[in-house]
Task: inverse folding
């Protein structure tokens, strides 16, 4: 049993949320890994009396929490912001039915898109579904609001969303945590008159939803605070409240009333009391004008004429920063804010995107896939990509992700590409993504006879978010594909140059049979391998054999392979993990492995 | 001290996040309010990473442009990428190593070009190998240097030493302290 400390402890916002859930008696916690949400479930997994799982996707995770809350349990569901799109179908229904226990959904957003395809503002789901959205302003408030969310959810019997983001979830700060409570599991119970949304029941539930919404409005009305006085006010929402407070303090601006709220949907009506006597107000919030628009509506309802500024001054795109806060305050108040100018203006720092790790099997898959396609007579095709570490295949030298739009989208997009052009596409999808949302599209490809080459990059882990498991650990992807009706299924090892041959044969089959063929590229995530077995081998380049042909460092690009001044290759002994993937890549046999193979090495790569 | 802002920049895999966490822990133990903001999440190595550490009378987790007092660059090019965060009065602790990105055919800056650009700040050019030798930890060694040059005004070295789990890190940290003491008048400092 892990003891909870009573004095403040330095922790991530995500850990603070997990501890808040523990203090609220959470019993069931399910999620799908996604940056920046992952550490919430990971923290809860250390507590044995709480049931935790990584579900196969966010919808399943949500339904797990929803089902538990139907039984009266206290349930937590976590995902990144775009995961809400996957969960949204059942999410919308949960607002109609309500819950018997408590259901809290944590959605971790990514303003600025540090590791996401979009920065969509999930607070719109709160407005759309009549689900309250709480928004913390630092890790401590993330903890406290989680407790608040569970209380609100159980007292009204309604789902509650917590909207956090990178600068809360991945910020470490001191947090006072409340003691853990025993988990509250449910009791077997049935209430089809509430939970079975056939039209007759749905119509009644809709009325009850509206009643609960009124209750929620009064139970969230205390989530407003203010400091100072003045004829102008600045309203900070969630983390923006922190930026506003510090900015006004450092800029020595007083005579401005600071108002803060950690409830963005529904905007507490008590905010009106704070704004009486104020002439104009600036709303500072992340992403879209969700609070700003509600405030405008509230003011009109109350017959108040107060000028509201917001996104017109802060702008929409990117995450909130002091610069944006300073700039908008300066325009709003008509004051000049002295800002230091950086004496140099650099525009040409070479970009440094993350790279596939040394030993990453995806690199070899991309390398030999291209070769295999050429061998199979395909010079140009559409690489329909997907979301995972292999998304990095979009970068040179591979350029083998022509689109990647959302989890599991590769096969659906490939279908559209083929139907409109009759070019045989290649769909590339990871194992976790395959089970996340790839399966329905695979059924469609079989059902509608889509000529496509599907390559499943199976490293048996959800690697991008930190090697969480994946259903591929217990379900064989080749079996799954055969079971769904794919006629041509092969398993290949991407480190083996014959992988190219496997690809070319599959392509020929697709052309001839005008149906989907699927290859499972099977090799473990390199990071996971070196976690299990300490590498003892390293690769060397024989400078006498190396001709400086550039293939290994310009076309294979393992980060451990460097270019010498004379164009010959040299391998960084520090970075090389001795996987041997580069050995067959050199056409002049200049690369060899040295050292003894550690025990369990091959098994770690292939099990 | 009212507030102190430290930006650590480097490449994924160099221990940037760990260095940030250690600084935050050490100040936290002494009772300072801290925020440490990371942009980790992607597992892959090799991408540009930075960590913002804010200490003292602060509310927001991110350092503003020209707001950092100290910039620690575990790779020299990354100092350039993050230079707009450094105050004109700030100091740079620069690991004198340039690593090209894992992209084919990019033009990289040479170390001499980088120090030339940075000469308008107080820049300490550090050679990791000289500090910690072959077996030490570069990030911890440089942390030792920065401790001795700056954080020692507020903290004791034990505040750090107790945070390291192994002897290699403790030794590297102490080596950094000794290095600063020995070299502080000789290190390249341009202003
Ligand atoms: S592929 Fe072989 S010959 Fe070509 S640069 Fe690399 S080591 Fe040298
Ligand atoms: S053996 Fe080759 S491919 Fe594998 S890590 Fe070392 S240099 Fe990279």
Result:
């Amino acid at each position: 049993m892990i003891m909870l400390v009573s004095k403040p402890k330095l922790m991530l916002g995500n850990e603070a949320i997990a501890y808040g859930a523990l203090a609220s008696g959470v019993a069931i916690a399910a999620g799908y890994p996604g940056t920046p949400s992952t550490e919430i479930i990971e923290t809860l997994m250390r507590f044995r009396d709480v049931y935790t799982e990584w579900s196969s996707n966010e919808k399943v995770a949500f339904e797990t929490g929803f089902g538990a809350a139907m039984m009266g349990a206290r349930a937590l569901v976590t995902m990144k912001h775009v995961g809400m799109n996957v969960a949204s179908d059942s999410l919308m229904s949960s607002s109609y039915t309500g819950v018997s226990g408590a259901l809290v959904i944590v959605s971790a957003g990514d303003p600025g898109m540090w590791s996401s395809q979009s920065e969509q503002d999930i607070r719109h789901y709160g407005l759309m579904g009549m689900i309250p959205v709480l928004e913390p302003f630092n890790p401590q408030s993330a903890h406290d609001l989680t407790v608040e969310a569970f209380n609100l959810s159980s007292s009204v019997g309604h789902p509650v969303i917590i909207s956090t983001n990178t600068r809360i979830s991945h910020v470490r700060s001191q947090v006072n945590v409340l003691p853990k409570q025993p988990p509250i599991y449910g009791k077997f119970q049935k209430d089809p008159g509430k939970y079975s949304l056939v039209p007759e029941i749905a119509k009644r539930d809709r009325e009850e939803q509206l009643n609960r919404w009124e209750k929620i409005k009064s139970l969230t009305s205390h989530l407003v605070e203010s400091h100072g006085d003045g004829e102008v006010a600045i309203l900070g929402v969630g983390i923006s409240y922190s930026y506003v407070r510090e900015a006004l303090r450092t800029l020595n601006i007083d005579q401005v009333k600071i108002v803060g709220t950690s409830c963005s949907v529904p905007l507490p009506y008590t905010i009106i009391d704070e704004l009486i006597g104020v002439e104009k107000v600036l709303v500072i919030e992340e992403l879209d004008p969700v609070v700003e628009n509600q405030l405008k509506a509230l003011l009109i309802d109350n017959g108040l004429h107060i000028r509201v500024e917001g996104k017109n001054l802060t702008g929409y795109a990117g995450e909130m920063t002091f610069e944006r806060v300073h700039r908008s305050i300066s325009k709003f108040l008509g004051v000049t804010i002295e800002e230091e100018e950086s004496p140099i203006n650099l525009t040409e720092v070479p970009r440094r995107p993350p790279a596939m790790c040394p030993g990453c099997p995806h690199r070899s898959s991309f390398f030999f896939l291209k070769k295999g396609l050429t061998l199979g007579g395909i010079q140009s095709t559409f690489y329909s990509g997907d979301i995972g570490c292999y998304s990095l295949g979009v970068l040179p030298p591979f350029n083998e992700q022509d689109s990647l739009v959302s989890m599991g989208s590769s096969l659906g997009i490939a279908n559209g590409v083929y139907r409109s052009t009759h070019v045989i596409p290649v769909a590339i999808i990871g194992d976790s993504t395959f089970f996340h949302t790839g399966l329905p599209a695979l059924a469609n490809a079989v059902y509608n006879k889509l000529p496509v080459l599907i390559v499943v990059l199976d490293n048996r882990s959800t690697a991008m978010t930190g090697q969480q498991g994946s259903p591929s650990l217990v379900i064989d992807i080749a079996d799954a594909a055969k079971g769904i009706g794919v006629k041509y299924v092969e398993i290949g090892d991407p480190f083996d140059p014959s992988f190219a041959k496997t690809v070319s044969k599959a392509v020929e089959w697709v052309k001839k049979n005008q149906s989907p063929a699927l290859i499972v590229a099977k090799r473990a995530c390199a990071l996971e391998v070196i976690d299990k077995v300490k590498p003892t081998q390293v690769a060397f380049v024989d400078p006498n054999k190396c001709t400086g042909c550039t293939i290994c460092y310009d076309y294979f690009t393992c980060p451990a392979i460097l270019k010498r001044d004379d164009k010959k290759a040299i391998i960084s002994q520090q970075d090389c993990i001795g996987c041997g993937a580069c050995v067959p890549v050199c056409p002049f046999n200049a690369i060899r492995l040295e050292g003894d193979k550690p025990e369990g090495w091959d098994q770690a790569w292939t099990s | 001290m009212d507030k102190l802002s430290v930006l650590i920049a480097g490449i994924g895999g160099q221990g940037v996040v760990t260095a940030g966490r250690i600084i935050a822990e050490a100040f936290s133990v002494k009772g300072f309010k801290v925020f440490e903001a990371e942009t980790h999440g992607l597992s892959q190595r090799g991408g540009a990473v930075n960590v913002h550490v804010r200490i003292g009378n602060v509310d927001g987790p991110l350092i503003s442009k020209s707001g950092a007092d100290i910039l620690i660059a575990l790779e020299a090019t990354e100092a350039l990428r993050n230079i707009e965060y450094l105050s004109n009065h700030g100091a740079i602790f620069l690991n004198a190593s340039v690593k090209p990105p894992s992209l084919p055919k990019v033009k990289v800056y040479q170390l001499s070009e980088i120090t030339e650009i940075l000469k308008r700040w107080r820049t300490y050019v550090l050679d990791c190998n000289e500090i910690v030798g072959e077996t030490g930890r570069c990030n911890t060694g440089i942390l030792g240097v920065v401790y001795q040059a700056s954080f020692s005004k507020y903290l004791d070295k034990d505040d750090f030493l107790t945070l390291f789990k192994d002897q290699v890190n403790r030794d590297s940290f102490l080596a950094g302290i000794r290095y600063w003491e020995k070299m502080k008048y000789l290190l390249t400092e341009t202003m």
Notes: Chain B touches chain A through 54 residues (CB under 8 Å).
